[in-house]
Every structure is written in structure tokens, then in C-alpha cells.
Design a protein that fits this description.
Helix content: over 70%
Number of strands: 0
Largest sheet: none
Number of helices: 4
Number of domains: 1
Distance between the termini: 36 Å
Shape: elongated
């Protein structure tokens, strides 16, 4: 099973890319970038990890919806491989 930091890191990299993941995830979770960096490093855990994971799930679902719409738009103009 993945640790909290591993799950958070994988989601952040998928959502934002590896270079700005901590800053962008912090913005979306409404916490400081340094807090996210500590979580990713495994040096600290959030007081409510289930709450953070629930918020993260909503962020991922929203991004998935956005990407699905982009894929539909691409397909509608002939972008099929």
C-alpha cells in the first residue's frame, strides 16, 4: 500500500507535472506550498488526512472531467489517431 506522501506525490505529478506540483497542489488544497512539501517528504502528516484525501479526490475528478471535455473537442474536429 502506498503511503500518504506517495499518493499525494503521484496525484500532484499527474495533475500539475513534477516541476510545480507542490505550489499548484497547495493552492488547490488551500495550504502553503511548504506544507505540501513536508507532506510529500513524509516529515509531517496532515491533522486530517482523510479530509485532504477527500479534497484531492474532488480535484482529480474535476481535472478528469476537464480532460474528458478536451478529448471530446479534439475528437469532434478529427483528432482521432
Amino acid at each position: 500500500m502506498m503511503s500518504f506522501g506517495e499518493v499525494l506525490g503521484a496525484a500532484a505529478a499527474a495533475l500539475y507535472g513534477r516541476h510545480s506540483a507542490a505550489a499548484d497542489l497547495g493552492r488547490d488544497l488551500d495550504v502553503a506550498e511548504s506544507t505540501v512539501r513536508r507532506w510529500l517528504a513524509g516529515t509531517h502528516q496532515p491533522q486530517n488526512p482523510d479530509g485532504v484525501l477527500a479534497d484531492l479526490k474532488l480535484i482529480v475528478e474535476d481535472r478528469l472531467d476537464e480532460l474528458s471535455a478536451v478529448l471530446e473537442n479534439i475528437s469532434s474536429i478529427g483528432g482521432e489517431p
